[in-house]
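thread: overnight batch results

M.L. [08:02]
morning all. the overnight job finished for the chain we discussed friday. pasting input first so we're all looking at the same thing
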Amino acid sequence: MKLGIIGLTASGKTTLFNSLSKAKETGNKNIYSGKSLNVKTVPVPDERLDKLEGIFNPKKKTPAYIEFVDIAGLEKNGKGAGNKFLVNIREVDALVHVVKCYDILSGSPLKDIETIDLELIVSDLESIERRINSINRHKRVTSPREKKEREILKKISEGMENGRAARNMGLMPDEIKIIRSMGLLTLKPVIYCANIAEDDMGKDESELPFLNGIREYAQKEDSEFLAVCAGMEEEVSGLEPEDREAFMKDLGIDESALDKLVKSSYRILGLISFLTVGPDEVRAWTIKRGDKAPAAASIIHSDIERGFIRAETISFDTFIGLGSFLKAKEKGLLRSEGKQYTVNDGDIMDFRFNV
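M.L. [08:03]
and the structure it wrote out:
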């Protein structure tokens, strides 16, 4: 899973990136002047793996991973240092839009959101225009699929001319499939991350009306919303685990920004994790919610999917309550599931297959 972090200049998005990746910047003000981006791969926190590690004592523990891509700040009319890097985040699965919600002297966070949305629309329109022109140049040999693609892109272009993001145009799944390879930024799911002041931490949201505005905006387009204090998160992330836990408790922080982002990203992308265990490794695997057992097997290896026979399965909670596969078998709680089984989040699975 790959998430792109975007926001206006001075929104706190790189501070958030630092807290997520525990990677401090060098202070180089020209960090974005080259072709490289800030990219960091971060393990997904999962207490289930920790508990399974304690039971199986494996040689290694392998969590799922998220790759965060941080680009420089965006600005109105394409003047931000990050505007030229938008092409580099077209392959991310979702966008984390960091919105400044502190030192609000003029304007509003919602206007900031609209500014970013407009810049993303402009970038998408340029891509759409290039693609339509490309199709038109060889119109005599245009395939039925390309004709359909052009039709869809024209519809999206017309909507964007009226300030609408592609994700808000009610596109059908088959239409999205045809244009998915373009990586339209305004078609990607969005997690709106309100970056609040340290003094606002712990306050009821009724005391922070701008948060309600962002939440309502997110709800209208079926996006995710969360609030963090990026500066405090960055400070806490540099502490040792025990000190970090105590500090967070003192501040009244129940979850870290990373924990919140993981939950939001899994929800908005429709993802779950199943688990595999053994003396060599305990591991989390990420799949789409609703995937069948063979699809889950294919994530491990295509040969397992092709030779799939069955999957010995037990839920994590049931297994932890028993403590061993032997007890699960004795009680008849280790199930044998076939090809039509829909995998659940937290399923512990052992696949049987023909080589």
